[in-house]
């Protein structure tokens, strides 16, 4: 990706830092969502296994 021609077109360090922090916050939110879905799924599997064991003949 080529650099912008003039220094005024380049993002300032504040803008770059804000963009990086926003991206980091977004990614962290996705990690929490994945963790929540994973834990929810593990509990569903555990409940199905408990049901299967208790109702086995």
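Sequence proposed for the structure above (57 residues):
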């Amino acid at each position: 990706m080529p650099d912008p021609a003039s220094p005024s077109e380049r993002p300032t360090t504040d803008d770059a830092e804000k963009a990086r922090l926003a991206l980091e916050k977004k990614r962290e939110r996705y990690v929490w969502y994945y963790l929540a879905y994973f834990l929810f799924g593990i509990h569903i599997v555990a409940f199905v296994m408990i049901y299967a064991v208790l109702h086995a003949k």
